[in-house]
Specification:
The chain has a single domain, classed as Pantoate--beta-alanine Ligase, Chain: A,domain 2, CATH 3.30.1300. With 134 residues, the protein is of the alpha+beta class.
């Protein structure tokens, strides 16, 4: 009888499956975190591109409404980043600074928490107006 018990204790069939099930939640968390990092990188890159495009438009037209439109078009209708505001500052001698404010919402949180759990991104661009004000 003791020989039968030792054989059962040494039988490791299925142990790999049990170990995999123990590690599986950590894999899910790792990939969720990785996805959030990718989404945040996309949001920062898109915000920087949007403020640069807005600065180019403002330099060419000297009209903030067209620069704002350019920034909104660059941001698009993504769920990751939302337009908030575009603030111009006159630096003198035709130079200007544009500051773009956007909200970056975290990807894997419920919709009712997205407002409170979003991050404000602030990007700025400095340029020179090519066309004087009319």
């Amino acid at each position: 009888m003791t020989m039968f018990k030792n054989q059962k204790a040494n039988n490791e069939t299925g142990s790999v499956s049990i170990e995999f099930l123990g590690i599986l939640p950590f894999y899910f968390m790792f990939f969720l975190l990785l996805w959030q990092v990718v989404a945040s990188g996309y949001a920062v890159f898109t915000a920087k591109t949007a403020v640069n495009n807005a600065a180019k438009t403002y330099a060419a037209t000297n009209k903030i409404d067209q620069a704002e439109k350019s920034a909104k078009e660059t941001l698009g209708s993504s769920n990751v980043i939302k337009y908030k505001d575009l603030v111009p500052t006159d630096l003198g001698n035709g130079k200007f600074k544009l500051v773009l404010y956007t909200d970056h919402s975290l990807t894997f949180i419920p919709k009712q928490w997205k407002e409170k759990a979003s991050l404000e991104l602030e990007q700025e661009a400095i340029g020179k107006v090519l066309v004087p004000k009319p």
